[in-house]
Amino acid sequence: MSFHYLDMERYERIEHFRYFLSMPYPYVGVTVDTDVTDIVSFCKARGYSFYLTFLHAAAKAADRVPELRRRIRDGVIIEYDACPTSHTELCANGTYCYCTLRHDQPFEEYIAYAETERRRRRESGSLREDADVESMYFISTLPWLHYSALIQPAAGGEESNPRITWGAFAPNAGGRLQMPVTLLVHHALADGSHIAKFYDALRAEIAAIAARYDAS
Fold first, then answer.
1. Residues 77-104: pLDDT tens digits?
2. Residue 1 has pLDDT above 80, yes or no
3. How many other C-beta atoms are found inside a 10 Å radius of the C-beta of residue 206?
């Protein structure tokens, strides 16, 4: 994946970067109930996997926030042009494996490619990644629970891959489907405003899918 180095002498968050990088657990994350009514309707109408469709929307949303494409390498910051995803797939034996996907193609091509890749990875059952791990968004799901908070594992130090996780969706009082979506980021690279931009972008990506459904 293509990337460039940030000019650390001109980096406006250099003090924040150094401060949070010194912490043993330098991460910040939030969980937001997200309206998925329209994207669920889209998937049901087209026969598409909700998991893969929402994964595509989440990855596209993350790419729209530069801070989420940044990683720490040897004490400085690099920024990727785009980042692939590594998501968990449930295997037949009850364990899980990792599946790497890119999302730089039209959605209809993506969904066919993603289905093929998930079947291939389920058969191999491997935790080996198929791309540069540093560049990835780490994606997971907890489909059995509509949770309100989630603590995610991270190595600390310079390990700075954003983690995006979601749970089960459930109707609210108005009948709209709400799903908890969690984003964890390295605080040396991103603040609350950048997290908020991700959720704004996610809503926009969901709306774009709903518009595709309405036009069909």
1. 999 999 999 998 888 787 888 899 999 9
2. no
3. 22
CB-side neighbour CA atoms (13 Å) of 4: 5
What pLDDT, on a 0 to 100 scale, did the predictor assign at position 131? 67
49/205 Cα distance (integer angstroms): 16
Sign of CA dihedral 118, 32, 14, 25: negative
CB half-sphere exposure, 91, CA atoms < 13 A: 15
**Is 23 a residue whose pLDDT tops 80?**
yes
Which pair of tokens denotes residue 156?
Answer: 């600390």
